[in-house]
Amino acid sequence: MRITVIGCGYLGATHAACMAELGHEVLGVEVDADKLKLLSSGTAPVFEPGLSELLDKHVSSGQLRFTDSYEEAAVFGDVHFLCLGTPQKSFGLAADTSYLDSAVRSLAPLLTGPALVVGKSTVPVGTAPVLAELLTSLAPAGTDVHLAWNPEFLREGLAVQDTLAPDRLVMGIVDPADERLLVVTDFATAELVKVSANAFLATKISFINAIAEVCDATGADVVDLADALGYDARIGRRFLNAGIGFGGGCLPKDIRAFVHRAGELGVEDAMRFLREVDLINQRRREHVVELATAMLGPLSGARVSVLGAAFKPDSDDVRDSPALWVAGQLHMRGADVRVHDPQAMPNARRMFPTLTYLDDPVATCEGTDLVLHLTEWPVYRELDPVALASVVARPAIIDGRNCLDPTVWRAAGWDLRALGRR
Ligand code: UGA
What we know:
Blueprint: E1 2-6, H1 10-21, E2 25-29, H2 33-40, H3 51-61, E3 64-67, H4 70-76, E4 79-82, H5 98-107, E5 115-119, H6 127-138, E6 145-149, H7 159-164, E7 170-172, E8 183-185, H8 187-218, H9 222-230, H10 251-264, H11 268-271, H12 273-296, E9 303-307, H13 322-332, E10 336-340, H14 345-351, E11 356-357, H15 361-365, E12 370-373, H16 378-381, H17 385-389, E13 396-399, H18 406-411, E14 415-418
Helix pairs in contact: 1-3, 5-6, 8-10, 8-12, 12-13
Uridine-5'-diphosphate-glucuronic acid (UGA) binds next to helix 8.
């Protein structure tokens, strides 16, 4: 098939490359000149395992191309995927759907023949019918242009795998008569499946983080507790890792947008608990800053090393990253903060130019009074606690991700504190 992918950020670039890998002819539409240049040379605009390889392979073969021209896209494609971002609005909690809206306004007037437009962005429930109406009213082909909603569930770091072999496909269409391998449903259900999934994941993380607070108050161990809970197949162990909480471009803004949309729909009471989920999550980061302050004494002049800046490993994304938030707070309160991350340093530097960034984790810790392990990259688990103890000023560490072995680190002389751990 001849496919266009409109909006080539995280989701779009991955979708475009994977559709080419599945054998389709793909044209990506990207209006940001810098991103377009990178993509056209077969380079991913973000760090995502396997993505650059796929882009390079299919750009080289000519099966995948990129453009900034909607005219070219309208002529090229039978199917147009909308992969625009829906970030949190600058004022308030709502999701900003203006990129989607303007993409539809640019594309629709150019659709002179039958076409299928497929929305993949995460949207407030009620968005798809408005876009469907806009499409048919602006397109010369009128009702021969159809909209379907096919929300995306890819995880950063596993984006290529999740796109090529998704665990489910949800397809929202106007008349859900045909149900086979796909979950075929109406617009509202398709939109809600996506935000409910992210709300559930966020709730699961905040649940275990709330339990971690109780563990801290009682001397219980949240990791043992999560393992025990996880043996119950109805609960499951995944997304029960307590620590500094969730961040990134999806979970935080999606739960806020869900609360906002529920308010508009008159069911704010039903989603009120998500405010609590958000508050629990925010409290985790603050707790780490307080713990660091308690361990260091006055922050002014204290030397701190932060391992990890990305919101999670295998990603260079620092949007709403708990790790970078903690680093920034300690810096603003007077500490001398050095940061290391295997992939996210360019993005972190853009967001927090006043922090010091070093290329090597051991050099980052050299001479510091406190180490904070805040993003669980495998490389940090491989650090030798004995060797590291000999380069720091004081062997003190906060494990914000609860994945360093406390017994091993303490045996090497470290004062190790974790979150909700014995
Ligand atoms: C999330 C969802 O997992 C995807 O299914 C969804 O498609 C995507 O959002 C989206 O809406 O586009 P992603 O943001 O890539 O994917 O990241 P997650 O793997 O969900 O992690 C989110 C955050 O939760 C990270 O900061 C991670 O460190 C944190 N987390 C995760 C925990 O603190 N504890 C856990 O047990 C798991």
